[in-house]
Amino acid sequence: MPVRNRFAEMLPEITEWRRDIHRNPEILFDTHRTSAMVAAKLRDFGCDEVVEGIGRTGVVGVIRGKAGDKVVGLRADMDALPIHEATGAEHASQTPGAMHACGHDGHTAMLLGAAKYLAETRNFAGTVVVIFQPAEEGGGGGREMCEDGMMDRWGIQEVYGMHNWPGRPVGAFAIREGAFFAATDVFEIALEGKGGHAAKPQETVDTTLMGAHLVTALQSIVSRNADPVKQIVVSVTAFETSSKAFNVIPQAATIKGTVRTMDPAMRDLAERRLSEIAAGVAATFGGTIAVDYQRNYPVMVNHGEHTEFAREAARAVSGDCDDAPLVMGGEDFAFMLEERPGAYILVGNGDTAPVHHPEYDFTDDAIPAGCSWWAEIVERRMPAA
């Protein structure tokens, strides 16, 4: 079955929802306006149950079809990013310093469109739970919703997610089984030395020099410690010192960064070696270095049977579904896939700016394909007699 006519008819309406969300971006858990809008629409659609405040500001809607025991969860994310928009679009962000630079406005609108259709037709045997999640962009909203008991409360048996993908043709799908998106850890390193006059370096312990050696040495984790056939990225993204003057050697410095891995052993290796290298640099230069390493999102792993099912649903909508590449970005849908089996798919956003870029915008023409995939998942997974 190709893109459903109902979603082509609904495109102007869903587009306006999407652009309204885009104009009013909200970051992390502060999705109060978006969450209220989502809950109001779900109630207008006639959902059997609508609950707000799951995982702080998440929203859950329940749609019951014909008699059946199966319960399928469908998830979209709602939060924006702290980026100043540069699209120049009529529907551009009205909030300085915040924009939907990852397409979560589109994800939310597509799942709302699917929810409206499923509440109208109810042509499935079982229950659909639509999940609207805050704080995907670093806040762990998916983890929060799971820890709030969402899966058990509604008896969700399997769960599916979707993300738009710039560079793929509009409405074209791609997926992969197994590890898909990387584990995303962060580190903050505090360096302490002995500050002093820049003309008397012999009287100091220079944290700038310590930090420079540390940044270089950290690259050896990938180049000399990790198995070269394993995926791992170590990136230093910030280096700040306590000095603002040309003639002062700083007493302290801070280095921040991220580690991305696809394998638990590589994750353990990176954390261990980062601390060992820091200790070695501190000993070499006579300063002190404290490492704060925080494990953030786990590897997002698509389950085998559910991946193939999601692929078949995509083929039914668009005629094909490609193999997706490994992605070293993180995705906190990983927490939901740790709780329940399921799969995550990519849908093409066309030739647009990349996500997390100030000129990115979600492509509204992808909406019918995305909505159709959600509907196909439900009606194929829970066919009515």
Number of domains: 2
CATH class of the largest domain: Alpha Beta
Q: What would you say the CATH architecture of the largest domain is?
A: 3-Layer(aba) Sandwich
List segments where confidence is low: pLDDT < 50 over at least 5 consecutive residues.
Answer: none
N-to-C order of helices and strands:
HHEEEHEHHEEEEEHHEEEHEEHEHEH
Gap from first CA to last CA: 18 Å
Structural class: alpha/beta
Question: Summary?
Answer:
By secondary structure, the protein is an alpha/beta fold. It is 36% helix and 28% strand.
Describe the overall structure.
The chain is an alpha/beta fold. The protein folds into two domains: 5-181 and 299-381, Zn peptidases (Aminopeptidase); 183-297, Alpha-Beta Plaits (2-Layer Sandwich), CATH 3.30.70. The chain is 36% helix and 28% strand. It has eleven helices and 16 strands. The chain has helices spanning 5-23, 32-45, 104-121, 141-147, 150-153, 207-218, 220-225, 264-285, 304-318, 333-339, 367-381; strands spanning 49-54, 58-64, 66-77, 125-133, 158-166, 173-175, 178-181, 183-192, 196-197, 232-241, 248-249, 252-261, 288-297, 300-302, 321-323, 342-350. The strands form four sheets. It has an eight-stranded mixed sheet with strand order 1-2-4-3-5-16-6-15, sandwiched between helices. A four-stranded antiparallel sheet has the order 10-12-8-13, covered by helices on one side. Strand 1 (49-54) and strand 2 form a beta hairpin. Helix 3 (104-121) packs across helix 11 (367-381) and helix 6 (207-218) packs antiparallel against helix 8 (264-285). The two termini are 18 Å apart. The mean pLDDT is 97.
